[in-house]
Amino acid sequence: MNSIEYKEFYDKVGKINGWDFSNVKCISKGVKWDFYNEVAKTCKKSDILLDIGTGGGEAILSIADSALLLVGIDHSTGMIETATKNSAESDIANVRFLQMDAENLNFPENFFNVTSSRHSCFYAKEIAKVLVKGGMFLTQQVSENDKLNIKEAFGRGQAWGAKKDSLKAKYITELSDAGFNDIQSFEFNANEYYQTPADLIFLLKHTPIIPNFGEKEIDFQILQQFIVDNQTEIGIRTNSERFMVIARK
């Protein structure tokens, strides 16, 4: 899946349900943090927060009381449509959503106190431009070995064949080059157990884990065997591998 195909896929998902997987039944064991809880703990009530790649806005709406103003941006028209709808239904007054590319943050310099980005591309120099001196940036990203047994079964997948920790190293270097300091990184590799085949299929259809999943009949044959091989008493087993980077400008 190239960048154009990914953007089309992402926009399609955005129009359907945003980036909301709350109805997927999954048991996780070994998760070390909740990213937006970490973001909320970093904020003061007087802060202005920017969330890059905000998706359907579900996450920052859930932490709206942690800051004075929260702004979510996304390049996807579909995601912003869903985020705007979610915001209107929530009746939360201090959250705004804008369609904007992360590589061109059209805000005043030194405007935000905290910036966050979960599972979305970001550009360190752009973030440095809009963050106040001493401001904090937090990102959580998908590690190369996430859903490894699924990728092995299909022989393809997101970051398939990439060297472990290569994305983390790239982002840390870019943040350092942009003038950030006190850069810290954390990671976990948790077990996930999807309760039913339908839950796993929803995940694969609404994420780029297996590009173009379901377009060929053989995909469902592979999935059927994967379920047989990885079924446990508490669900269908795979893994969730994430890293988090926190940096100060």
Main attributes?
about 250 residues; alpha/beta; 9-stranded mixed beta sheet; 9 helices; disordered N terminus
pLDDT < 50 stretches: 1-19
Number of helices: 9
Biggest sheet descriptor = 9 strands, mixed
| Oligomeric description of these chains | single chain
Q: How many beta strands in the DSSP annotation?
A: 9
The overall average pLDDT, rounded, is 91
Report the radius of gyration as a whole number of Å. 18 Å
Percent strand: 25-35%
Q: Indicate the percent of residues in helices.
A: 25-40%
Order of helices and strands: HEHEHEHEEHEHHEHHEE
Shape field: globular
Structural class: alpha/beta
Head-to-tail CA distance between termini = 34 Å
GO molecular function: methyltransferase activity
Protein name: SAM-dependent methyltransferase
Pfam families: Methyltransf_25 (PF13649)
Organism: Paenibacillus polymyxa (Bacillus polymyxa)
Entry summary:
It comes from Paenibacillus polymyxa (Bacillus polymyxa). It contains nine helices and nine strands.
Task: Indicate the topology.
Elements: H1 3-17, E1 26-29, H2 35-42, E2 48-52, H3 58-62, E3 69-74, H4 77-90, E4 95-99, E5 112-118, H5 124-130, E6 131-142, H6 148-154, H7 166-177, E7 181-194, H8 197-205, H9 217-230, E8 231-232, E9 235-248
Parallel strand pairs: 2-3, 2-5, 3-4, 5-6
Antiparallel strand pairs: 1-7, 6-9, 7-9, 8-9
Helix pairs in contact: 1-4
Task: Explain what you see.
The chain is 37% helix and 28% strand. By secondary structure, it is α/β, with parallel strands linked by helices. Strands 1, 2, 3, 4, 5, 6, 7, 8 and 9 form a 9-stranded mixed beta sheet that branches. A hairpin with a 2-residue loop joins β8 and β9 (235-248). α1 runs parallel beside α4. It is globular and about 55 Å long.
